[in-house]
Design brief:
single chain, alpha+beta, Thiol Ester Dehydrase, Chain A, five-stranded antiparallel β-sheet, 5 strands, about 40% strand
Amino acid sequence: MSVFWLPVRVYLEDTDAQGVVYNAGFVRFMERARTDWLRERGVDHRAFDETLGLSLVLTSIEARFKAPGKLGDILAVSADLLEIKGARAVFVQEVRRDSSGGELLVEGRAEVACVDSANGRARRWPAEFVKELNR
């Protein structure tokens, strides 16, 4: 697969009184990277719902915090598809300081389900998107 990197600047709103990134902030940054990774491959959340009646739902998130992010940092947040099978896609992610080769701050893993927007039941990813996401 191909790793996608998203640059993210840490603002005051992302930090506590000591200027350290809230743990939940890293989860938001990883969500942005997954969303942009999908968008680059033709999966726009709104269009996915409007044209196919499908939504993407985060079903689990795992994060291992290695080092703090700080106010003013530029972070590199990755997203890469580990596997896609049936209704489930699994992503691996990292947050690094400065660049893709910088200090590792967070390792993550996210599972995203494809669901019917009307009833919330799991639905297989459309074959044409599976092919595109696996490129």
